[in-house]
Amino acid sequence: MPLDIQIRAAAPHDLSADLLVVGVLPAGKSAALPPTLKPIDEALGGALSRAAAKEEFTAKRDQSLTVSTLGRLPFEKVILLGLGERRSLGAPEVRTFAAKAARAANGDKARSLALSLPAGFETELRAIGEGLELGAYRFTRYLTGDRKPKAELASVVIGAGAKLKPTAKAAVALGQRIGLAVNVARDLSNEPSNVVFPETFAHHAEKVAKDGGLHVQVFDFKEIRKRGMKLIDAVGRGSAHEPRLVHIAYTPKGAKKRLVFVGKGITFDSGGLSIKPAAGMGEMKHDMSGAANVVGLMAAIAAVRPKVEVHAIAALAENMPDGNAYRPGDIWGSLDGKTVEIVNTDAEGRLVLADALAYARSLEPDVLVDNATLTGACVVALGNTCSGWYANDEGTARAFSAALKASGEAMWRMPLLEDLRDGIKSDVADVKQMGERWGGSITAALFLREFTGDTKWVHCDIAGPASLERPTGWMQSKGATGHGVLTFLALVEGAAR
Ligand code: BES
Ligand code: MN
Ligand code: ZN
What we know:
- The protein has 15 helices and 17 strands.
- By secondary structure, it is an alpha/beta fold.
- The protein folds into two domains: 4-165, Leucine Aminopeptidase, subunit E, domain 1; 182-496, Aminopeptidase, CATH 3.40.630.10.
- The strands form three sheets. It has an eight-stranded mixed sheet, sandwiched between helices. Strands 1-6-5-2-4-3 form a six-stranded mixed sheet, sandwiched between helices.
- The longest helix has 23 residues, at 168-190.
- The model has no long low-confidence stretch (mean pLDDT 95).
- Residues 269, 271, 346, 348 line the site of manganese (II) ion.
């Protein structure tokens, strides 16, 4: 259920909820609390200021102070959250602040949250709306009985520290829709593979498109074969669940640019005949996180309605071993026409992407972006809190960097090292599916590049955050967490300006 979010200009003591979270800016070196907290402190007999002095609460970013109100206030608990210096606070930090407040509320079994902001945050209300839904997110639908959360955050009142513009409510509401769009991606990623497989994923995507008034096409296995998407065929043929390709389109009148986003949608990656070890195989239910992201992105696009064309393409298959499965040593054609020598059936993501990229190219995009839980090597390189990205064009790279700055998501640029290109040369086919042992994220990117022609292209390897178990920033649940959606949205909004 979406949160019921209200906003008004109000001081902390004029609000009421199960939990009060107050964003506090540093007041120089002193541990002095802002004057707006005086009535709260007085109601608590000075306990708040005493605790702040004792804990040396100076409102540094991430610093927090919690006091129980013992029935003296309409709140059960008050949490002060340090915001850090104003000049270092952008939309991403404000979003994370709101997410932490919402997460704290759920953690405290609070059904209602009052979020108090200092004056001067009236331009960050969209980020607040985003953060609240992102932080409130939990994946609990399979918990029953005692395991079911007893309480769920349902309503939030935002107390702004200054008079509100008439647009304030709409800004919060838009942010909320964007947060919910990222949560669509997180839900799809977290669903197990017995529930979300190519066919059911496509149903979810169709629903998202219809709810947003977007055009959607689903290619079934017959259509995939008819169109010559031989690599999607190769990867998907060993599964009882047939592959699908989903294409969602947002085509506003007067658009001057077209952006196309492609996602890897392996609804389960067993490795195929090159089967994975048992340990950790369950994480591979998240191997469709890239596809989930592009669907979530389209939900956000439907809310923002920018003046550029946006397309999402999800390449969906389940990678399984069986008598009909593709094999190491096979040579397969592709939609692009190039032939590919298969080395390892566990390097399946780049294969479905190759066909999806070739299809995307036919839409003649100004920018083509793919995202995929592509390689363990990328996790080795960057850890599991940061994705890797590649670009074949410097102007596009600048735009993508700007989008990353706006979103605050952790992604590090990786190089398309030409020296490693020899690794994907094949003696028997046009290209080999994978390179030598080292530089696996880079050779995977070089393989994908073979299918992008001269299109301006960005590739994101999101394998790390996809199996994230630890919350960072607004990310909370285990699972791919929608990492990338906010950056892609920022890229689209940048192109629309
Ligand atoms: N889906 C995996 C990559 C992955 C690994 C994602 C860990 C998230 C966490 C991908 O299909 C895969 O199996 N890649 C292989 C490639 C190898 C066979 C060249 C890998 O990274 O080991
Ligand atoms: Mn694999
Ligand atoms: Zn995979």
